Amino acid sequence: MPSLERLEPRYVAELFAPLHRELIAVLRGLTASDWDRPTVAGDWRVRDVAAHLLDGDLRKLAMHRDGHSFGPDRPFRGYGDIVEFINAINASGVAFARRLSPRLLTDLLDVTGRWVAEFTESLDPHAPAAIPVAWAGESQSKNWMDTGREYTERWHHQMQIRDAVNAPGLLDGRWLDPLLDFSVRALPPAYAPLEAPDGTTITLTVPGDARWVW
Q1: Cβ neighbours of residue 47 under 8 Å, at least 6 residues apart?
Q2: Cβ neighbour number for residue 65 with a 10 Å cutoff
């Protein structure tokens, strides 16, 4: 049986600031028509993805930095209720931002993104996170894992914008290595329900300049 290595903690808080700078640089270079381009994120246009990022910044700062709490109208009865609640607040945040101009949306994101980066870097990476990373099979997560989860989301949303406006992607090792490192942590819980003989292993190979293998 081949030896298996456990995935170690990964620390990516220092990537939030440069990732944010890449986002603002792209947004400031968009034309008026670029903001209305469709994206792969369902019905969201470029401006809607940017609005979602702004809404996420504001919620993170309010809840996790400032201790402001808000929740659903009724207790969660299962994972489906959690998804429904998140989808509802995401939709409301995007709807509100439709009254903002692209310039104002970008200016606000420029500020909130820097605040989020500063706050994220201030967290103790091994302290308990406020919300567990459920897709990694965790019922309690550390801040380093929750920060990694958020990094993957921010990378994906920025790539949705870049893809829509034909801007270069963030595909070099600096960005992809941590992205893949956190993403593969979803595989064990995903495969856990499947029946297989003892000793069965799965190898994931991602081709590219670095060729990642797990």
Answers
A1: 35, 36, 97, 98, 102, 105
A2: 15
Residues 22, 122 contacting (CB under 8 angstroms): no
pTM passes above 0.85: yes
* Nearest C-alpha neighbor of 106 from the set 31, 189, 42, 179: 31
- Kindly state the average pLDDT of the residues 174-183: 96
CATH class of 13-213: mainly alpha
Of 131 and 83, more confident: 131
Amino acid at 67: G
pLDDT band, residue 82 (cuts 50/70/90): confident
CA dihedral 113, 115, 121, 122 (to 10 degrees): -160
- The structure tokens listed for 8 are 């170690």
